[in-house]
Amino acid sequence: MAAEGQIQRIIRDLHDAVSELIKEYKENGEPITDDSSNLHKFSYKLEYLLQFDQKDKTTFLGSRKDYWDYFSDCLAKIKGANDGIRFVKSIPELKTSLGKGRAFIRYSLVHQRLADTLQQCLMNHRVTR
Fold first, then answer.
1. pLDDT at position 56, please?
2. What residues does each domain of the chain span?
3. Looking at residue 59, what is its pLDDT?
4. Residues sharing a CB contact under 8 Å with residue 68, sequence separation 6 or more, in sequence order
5. Which of 49-53, 55-59, 68-72, 74-78 is least confident?
6. CA distances from 29 to 4, 16, 23, 88, 110 (A)
7. How far apart are the first and last CA of the chain?
8. Radius of gyration (Cα) for the chain, nearest Å?
9. With b meaning 16 or more CB within 10 Å and e meaning fewer, what string describes 72-88?
């Protein structure tokens, strides 16, 4: 039950971070950029939520699997939803699952598809289980 309370706190913190982003946007009247400390706070909270209570899994070669692997597994076969996956895989500078996951979140935010992406993944019961 302690984990349930902790997840509720994380969700509340994430909600507060989104509220701060909305407030910043309304005050400035311009799109949020990478210079925004509120965007950094939101990204940190979202990443923490995505990593919360993940079972430690590793690949055959021993590298740790992360939320990038979850996104990749969930969206690989969904036409239209896998554009971000293909984009991230095409960037040779990204070596770690964490880096790829961050790039994927950024791609999803830029293309205003983060909510749809998360919903698609949560609907994939086989992978989410």
1. 57
2. 1-53, 56-129
3. 53
4. 88, 97, 98, 100, 101, 104
5. 55-59
6. 37, 20, 10, 30, 17
7. 19
8. 16
9. bbbbeeeeebbebbeeb
